[in-house]
Design brief:
The chain is of the alpha/beta class. The protein has helices spanning 2-17, 44-54, 71-79, 98-110, 135-146, 186-191, 193-209, 218-231, 242-263, 267-285, 298-340, 347-373, 378-417, 419-437, and strands spanning 20-24, 35-39, 59-64, 82-85, 114-117, 154-162, 171-176.
């Protein structure tokens, strides 16, 4: 009961926080026996919540024992299917036994259920697949060795790719991979548990790397993100859209940069310098890079700006309505986050949890206040209540749209007054394309 209730609440919170959660190959999660899901771990609790929403069945998660530091937390988290583990890098939590936790994992799998493990162990917002711990492989092979399962264990890798993990209304791509069979490593495990577990862990790494954009360093990752931001364009037609297009662009750029590093590493300094110059030019001119892909036709831009102005004019009442009902919880959350969260990996889950408390309280308070002065009927109250979160999202999108129109208006103005600077920027952008493509 508790699991299903929280699953519904977290599904609502996640869908409101992220504008798109795209799942590829969801049929790969079908199972009629024990299954272990392994995944990369860039975004702490959100990774578990998203995987929990993808699966229709109850899932059991291995998580760090420090969460289980009070009796109330132990009762609550165990009810949600969380299994604590004391990590070697952290102090041991009183009342948490790794022996008991591993036995719980064995029992979950022997009952034909699903266990989720993040073999990286810790969580950082980055696209590097960190070293995988061998504990997951040990669990899978130990269960196979015990021989109490009706069917072999199915191990499914999942690659989680966030466009901007900590940003409101960003996107998530969930890549479900091909299952990994632990049985070829069982005989080696029986002879030598260390080498058998390491061999299977190596297969885990191959399976996850095939689903991810795997950078080689944080500097490399930042450079690729900058290049993608400079070269990506909504005005160039692509087959893929949304988060799939973002992930594809990042992956292709990583591949091209890796080729440069291998074949012509002397180009890297020139690429980095050119990226820095283009970023400075874009910031000083206050325009978006993809505007440069549009041919400048004053009449066309004039008509578009007129249409946008009319849209903003007629949308303004909805913006005000949404702001009135959502500004207070939005602002309180914004003020609380720096005090509550130090690590960016916890920003999104904490913001969602705060929102799941603040927004219902705000909406209920407004509803009761309005109803006290203007009594509403049952259906009217329901429609009014539903309008509050919907209008909040509309208000947020309206604000983002005003920013876009402001930048576009500035671009039209610059094309008349700073044409030479725009031409230089276009030339530098084309030079960057040539450097990473040739």
């Amino acid at each position: 009961m508790l699991y299903n209730l929280l699953k519904i609440l977290l599904r609502i919170g996640t869908k409101l926080y992220y504008k798109e959660v795209k799942v590829n190959n969801v049929e790969g999660l079908k199972h009629d026996g024990p299954m272990i899901i392994i995944a990369n771990h860039p975004n702490t609790l959100l990774d578990a919540w998203i995987i929990g929403q993808v699966s229709k069945e109850k899932i059991f998660f291995m998580t760090k024992g420090t969460f289980f530091n009070t009796g109330l937390k132990k009762w609550f988290l165990r009810g949600l299917g969380l299994i604590p583990i004391n990590r070697a890098t952290e102090s041991k939590t009183k009342g948490v036994s790794n022996v008991d936790s591993f036995e719980t994992c064995y029992r979950v799998l022997e009952e034909g259920k699903i266990l989720v493990v993040f073999p990286e162990g810790n969580s950082f917002i980055e696209r590097q697949l960190r070293q995988l711990k061998s504990g997951t492989a040990r669990i899978a092979l130990e269960v196979q060795k015990r021989g109490k399962t009706a069917k072999p264990i199915k191990i499914v890798p999942i690659g989680l790719i966030y466009s901007e993990a900590d940003k409101f209304r960003s996107s998530v791509l969930v890549n479900v991979g091909k299952s990994i069979d632990p049985l070829p490593f069982l005989e080696e495990y029986k002879k030598n548990s260390i080498s058998g577990a390491r061999g299977l862990t190596g297969e885990f790494r191959k399976g996850l790397e095939a689903l991810l954009v795997n950078s080689i360093s944080s500097d490399h990752e930042l450079l690729v993100d900058d290049i993608v931001q400079i070269l990506s364009s909504r005005y160039v037609k692509k087959e893929k859209k949304g988060i799939e297009l973002v992930a594809d662009s990042i992956k292709n750029t990583h591949s091209k940069i890796n080729e440069v590093l291998m074949n012509t590493p002397q180009k890297m300094e020139e690429i980095a310098q050119l990226v820095s110059v283009i970023k400075q030019q874009l910031n000083s001119l206050d325009i978006k890079a993809d505007f440069l892909d549009r041919s400048y036709r004053p009449g066309m831009f004039g008509r578009q700006l007129l249409q946008s102005t009319l849209l903003l004019f007629f949308g303004f009442p909805f913006f005000i309505y949404g702001s009135i009902h959502n500004f207070l919880p939005y602002k309180i959350t914004d003020l609380m986050m720096p005090k509550l969260v130090k690590d960016p990996e916890y920003y999104a889950p904490v913001a969602i949890l705060i929102g799941l408390v603040l927004y219902p309280i705000t909406y209920t308070s407004i509803l009761l206040l309005v109803n006290a002065y203007y009594p509403l009927g049952g259906w009217t109250m329901l429609l009014y209540l539903l309008s509050m979160p919907i209008s909040g999202l509309l208000a947020f999108n309206y604000y983002r749209y005003t920013e876009h129109i402001s930048l576009k208006t500035n671009y039209v103005f610059l094309m008349r007054t700073e044409k030479d600077k725009i031409k230089t920027l276009i030339k530098n952008r084309e030079r960057l394309k040539a450097l990473i493509s040739n």
